[in-house]
Amino acid sequence: MFHAASSPVPSPRSSESEKDQHHQSPDRRSKQRDAFFDNAKYMAIVLVAVGHAWEPLKGDSRVLTAAYVLVYAFHMPAFILISGFFSRSFDGSPGKLKRLVTGIVVPYVVFETAYPLLKTYVDGAPQDISLLDPYYLTWFLCALFIWRLTTPFWKLVRYPLPLALGIAMAASATPNIGGDLDLPRVLQFLPFFVLGLNLKPEHFRLVRRRSVRIAAVPVFAFALAFSWWAVPRMNSGWLYHRNSAQELGVPWWVGPVMQLALFGCSLLLTACFLSWVPGRTMWFTTLGAGTLYGYLLHGLVLKTADYRGWFDHPALHRPLGEIAVTVVVAVAVTLMCTKPVRQALRFVVEPRMDWAFKRDATELAREREKQRPAEREREKVGAGA
Fold first, then answer.
1. Do residues 15 and 32 lie in contact, with contact meaning Cβ atoms separated by under 8 Å?
2. Where is the composition biased (Low complexity) (predicted)?
3. Residue 358 binned pLDDT confidence (cut-offs 50, 70, 90)
4. pLDDT at 31 over 70
5. What's the pLDDT at 383?
6. Is 56 helix (H, G, I), strand (E, B) or coil?
7. 118 in Cβ contact with 302 (< 8 Å)
C-alpha cells in the first residue's frame, strides 16, 4: 500500500501570522511542509521547462512531438491544481493581499519587463513593454493573480466547479474576449484552479495508493500512443487554451466539447502523475519551495538560446541531441530552484517591501499587548522609588 507522507499536510489556515512564520527556524518550517507537494511542484516544473525546450525541436520528430503533446496535456493543469489547493486560505485580508503583491504582482512587472528587453537586446528586434499583454511565461502570474483574487467568490457559490467549467466552455467559443491579461487562457484554465480550491488532503491520498500507481502505467502508455496517432490529426493549439474554436478554424460548438474532453483527459493524467510523486523526503524535496524561480528563470535561458539560433544546430534535431537538450534543461531548472539562487533573487521574486505597506492593525495590537507588562513593571519600579 502506498502510504501518505509521514508529515501532515500543512493547513493554509495557520494560526501563526506570516511574520511569525518568517522568523521560524528553517528546521521548524521544513517540518510543517509536506514532502509530497514539494516533490510534485519540483517534478511539474521540470516537465514545464522540458516541454518548452522541446518546442523548437519537435517539428522533426513525430515521437518527440507525441511526448510534447502528452506533457502539455497535464503539466500546467497539475501545477495550477496544486496552486489552487494552496490558495484555499486566501480571504482578502491585509496580510494575504500584501503577499499577493510581493509574490505575484512584483515579479510579474519585473519579468514582464525583462522578457521584452531580452528580445530587444539579444534578438535585435525591438519589443514593446506592455503590462497588459503577458509575454511568454508571465501569463501564469497574471492568471494566478486573478484566480486568487476571486477565491472568496469560489468559496461562496454552491457549485463552483460546474460554474468554472461553464465559464471555460463559453470562453472557448468566444473569439472577441481579446488578449489583454491573456484572459482566454485565464478563463480556460480556471476549472483546474477552482478544483484545487475544493480539494482536501484526503483526495490526494486517494491517488497515491499503490493500485492507482499501477493503473497509471497503462494509462500513460495509451496516452502516449494516442498522442502519436493524434500528431498529424489534431491542432496542438487546443492544449494551450489561449484560442477560441473559431480562431482554430472549427465551428463554435467544438470549443465547449473540446474543453470538456481536455478537462477530463488532463485531470486523469494529472491524477496518474500525482500517483507517481514520492511522498517521502527526496534529494529534490527542498527544491519544491523554489519552483517560481525555476519557472521564471528558465524562460530567459531558453529564449536566449532561441534568439541566438542555438536550437537550429542539426545535431540537436537527432535523438541523441534531443536527449541531451532534455537533460541539460532539467539540470538547469533544478539549479534555478536551489537555495543560493533563491537568496540572490529574492529581492525581485519575493521582496519583503515592508516600506510600501501600512502596519496591520492586528499586528500592532499584539505588539502593544506585549509591551504593556513591561510598562506596568516600570511604573511599579518608579512608584517604589
1. no
2. 1-14
3. confident
4. no
5. 55
6. coil
7. no
Contact indicator for 5, 279 with CB cutoff of 8 Å: yes
| pLDDT tier at 385, thresholds 50, 70, 90 | low
Which distant-in-sequence residues (6+ apart) come within 8 Å of 222 by Cβ?
A: none
pLDDT tens for residues 287-306?
A: 999 999 999 999 999 999 99
Cα–Cα distance measured from residue 383 to residue 102, given in angstroms and rounded to the nearest whole number: 48
What does residue 23 show for φ and ψ, rounded to 5 degrees? -90, 5
How many C-beta atoms surround the C-beta of residue 83 within 10 A? 19
What per-residue confidence (pLDDT) applies to 13? 36
Angstrom CA distances, 365 to 94, 237, 315, 376, stand at 15, 53, 65, 17
Q: C-alpha cell of 379?
A: 511604573
DSSP string, 107-167: HHHHHHHHHHHHIIIII-------TTS--GGGHHHHHHHHHHHTHHHHHHSS-HHHHHHHH
Of the pLDDT bands very low, low, confident and very high (cuts 50, 70, 90), residue 199 is very high
Rounded Cα distance, 383 and 385, in Å: 5
pTM recorded for the entire structure: 0.85
> Which residue bears the cell 541531441?
321
CB 241 within 8 A of CB 188: yes
Confidence class of residue 355 from pLDDT cuts 50, 70 and 90?
confident
In whole angstroms, how far apart are CA 336 and each of 34, 50, 71, 284, 331? Answer: 21, 14, 21, 12, 9
d(CA 16, CA 363): 11
Distance CA 123, CA 117 (A): 10
Q: In whole angstroms, give the CA distance from residue 7 to residue 44.
A: 21
Count the alpha carbons within 13 Å of 172 in the hemisphere toward its beta carbon. Answer: 29
| Domain boundaries along the sequence of the chain | 26-357
What span, in angstroms and rounded, lies between the C-alpha atoms of 269 and 181? 28
Coarse DSSP helix, strand, coil percentages of the chain, rounded to the nearest 5 percent:
75, 0, 25
DSSP labels, 284-341? TGGGGGGHHHHHHHHHHHHHHHHHHTGGG-GGGGSHHHHHHHHHHHHHHHHHHTSHHH
Q: Which three cell numbers stand for residue 199?
A: 480539494
Q: In which residue are the cell numbers 527544491 written?
A: 287
